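fyi for ur records
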Amino acid sequence: MDIGEVTSLLREAIMQVLLLAAPLLLTALVVGLVVAILQATTSIQEQTLTFVPKLIAILLILGFLGGWMFTSLGDYTVRLFRMIPEVVR
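which gave:
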């Protein structure tokens, strides 16, 4: 295994992490922004008001995309394990 293959492997790993984390992070960002706007317009400054909607939204996204996330991560892991004999040589 040469440096090009290692670089490609690391690039795939980073893309996999970004692909799996992006829906959750974007959901938390959008919900946090909406709640912050509502808090600013209503002058309600309760800290738990931002936490609970984010938690619910993230759980919903995990419910909808969880199967795809686990399948994607499982496929990537299987590809890595199949590459072990090539790396050992």
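The chain has one domain: 3-88. thats all i got for now
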